[in-house]
Amino acid sequence: xxxxxxxxxxxxxxxxxxxxxxxxxxxxxxGLIFAAPAIVFFGVFYVFALGWAVWISxxxxxxxxxxxxxxxxxxxxxxxxxxxxxxxxxTFYYVFGTVVPTWILALGLALVFHRAFRFRQFFLAxxxxxxxxxxxxxSLLWQLIYQPxxxxxxLITDPIGFEYVxxxxxxxxxxxxxxxxxxxxxxxxxxxxxxxxxxGIPEDYYEAASLDGAGEYQxxxxxxxxxxxxxxxxxxxxxxxxxxxxFTPTYILTQGGPGSATRVLPMFIFxxxxxxxxxxxASAASILLLLMLLGLTFIQFRLLGKPTTS
Length: 310
Known about the structure:
Helices cover about 70% and strands about 0% of the residues. By secondary structure, the protein is an all-alpha fold. It folds into 2 domains: about 15-55, no CATH class; about 75-305, MetI-like (MetI-like fold, Orthogonal Bundle), CATH 1.10.3720. The two termini are about 45 Å apart.
């Protein structure tokens, strides 16, 4: 369209293209104004905070005085710190103990709720309740469930001969207890995501496969799983990131104990930052945690991000 061409059939120069361009610029300006709070929030609490953490990781700082530049010393100390290495091991134990069962249970329940049956919506809503409960409240509730004298689990352990099981005070049971809590709360959320993915698969694919003689397992293997690849990638990324950032359950239930059995990496960072006031050391640990998450996310995209072949 030329500069003199009219718009909407009006031949007046007042409605020429330059005015339309000015309108679009003005419209974009309004959009930036409305987006400004989110942009400022992201810039201050994400971009600036990340840059500040990187800078502090090269310094020794007790949160009160002036940061003192020490280069890579914090990173060198971390890589030889037995407590830090143990926290990485404990974190990976928690992550793989949580996310793999969560994926399996979430997908299995999504397949169940994808079918029509009586009271389906009621059971779906009831099962989703744990996902909307605050993690703090959920952790306090499970603290009562794990109470060795009269907790809810005593209804299961006492009849089979295991009395007064100290779930949160036993180094061998504390982490499995935290993992069980996390699985029960996380499964409903990822079940809904998988359910949405299942409802997006056209029924024509299953009908055509049935006409070709494919059984239920073959349809699941050759249709459901490949077409759920984008959903699986999303669930894998956000669940692993969330698992690596676990803090509330371990802080409320065990405070990282007994010993260091549940001292995950976020707990290690928290203790060094706000208990020992060693902000440089804690920042270096948080940067290493970020690098681990970036590496795992890259691996997931390489494994699950490939397009599905027909």
